[in-house]
């Protein structure tokens, strides 16, 4: 998925906005897909094109980890 930054965004802001996560493995994938981001500084220019890492569908379903108060 290709997106564009808005004024004041950092790379992690964009990542969190679209993937609701900015953990280290996802950040690493982001910079592998977009090596040009390293040269733009911490605050990205508005309209910077960013290729987002794909969503992994094999994550553990959070509903399996719910604690039941009543049986």
Q: How do the strands and helices of this protein lay out in sequence?
A:
Layout: E1 2-4, H1 11-19, H2 24-33, E2 49-51
Antiparallel strand pairs: 1-2
Task: Provide structural commentary.
The chain has 71 residues and is an alpha+beta fold. It has one domain (2-53). It is built from two helices and two strands; from the N terminus they run βααβ. It has helices at 11-19, 24-33; strands at residues 2-4, 49-51. Strands 1-2 form a two-stranded antiparallel ribbon. The protein is elongated. The termini are far apart. The relative contact order is 0.24.
**Fraction in beta strands:** 5-15%
Main beta sheet:
2 strands, antiparallel
Structural class by SSE content: alpha+beta
Strand order of the largest sheet: 1-2
Radius of gyration: 16 Å
Number of strands: 2
**Helix share bin:** 25-40%
| Overall mean confidence score, pLDDT | 87
> So how many helices?
2
Tally of structural domains: 1
Order of helices and strands: EHHE
Q: Quote the distance from N terminus to C terminus.
A: 42 Å
Shape: elongated
Unreliable stretches (pLDDT < 50, length at least 5) are: none
């Amino acid at each position: 998925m290709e997106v564009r930054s808005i004024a004041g965004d950092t790379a992690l802001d964009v990542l969190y906005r679209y993937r609701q996560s900015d953990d280290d493995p996802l950040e690493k994938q982001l910079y592998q897909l977009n090596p040009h981001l390293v040269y733009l500084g911490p605050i990205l220019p508005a309209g910077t094109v960013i290729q987002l890492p794909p969503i992994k569908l094999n994550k553990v379903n959070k509903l399996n980890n719910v604690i039941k108060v009543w049986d």
